[in-house]
Fold:
Amino acid sequence: DTGVSQDPRHKITKRGQNVTFRCDPISEHNRLYWYRQTLGQGPEFLTYFQNEAQLEKSRLLSDRFSAERPKGSFSTLEIQRTEQGDSAMYLCASNPGGGDNEQYFGPGTRLTVT
Amino acid sequence: AQSVSQHNHHVILSEAASLELGCNYSYGGTVNLFWYVQYPGQHLQLLLKYFSGDPLVKGIKGFEAEFIKSKFSFNLRKPSVQWSDTAEYFCAVTVTDKLIFGTGTRLQVFP
Structure:
């Protein structure tokens, strides 16, 4: 399968713990996006990368959230000191860039903070 | 701020009924428009997209959508739904390289 992959698919953590999610985009896709989706809502943009450069961050991305894409391939999203309000589906998407705006989504990581 | 509105939150239809899901966006510039679908237990998949040209776009599985610039709308249609169309449908617009999604419409189709 050559689609976007995310790991883990599910994560249950206790409040106050740190968690890290990984996203592997489609090979040679320059752009990588993170979104968050809560129940009954559409995905909300968090941040995106062009190669290894983080080009935009949403105001939703508090200082407890950090994302990296160190070599321009896979990306990680870390949440420090998790709160119950962080419980959501975290989605990753990629696209080749160069004017093609279609984004290809991964299966998501479902985070539950207890 | 840019936004996308989907007026129908939950739609229930019988098989073979016609479907129209509304989508309006608020953004004055050039837009790229999308409909994504999320089948139960699966990830978001692209149904169709509009970048430019013919405002009537056809997607997969018999879906189509019409871009009406004057109404800032991009409604999704299908003449005859099937049970397998049961899913959540999201309208989205690209604004400065990121997608802005509507809240989604849950479609249930009964045999």
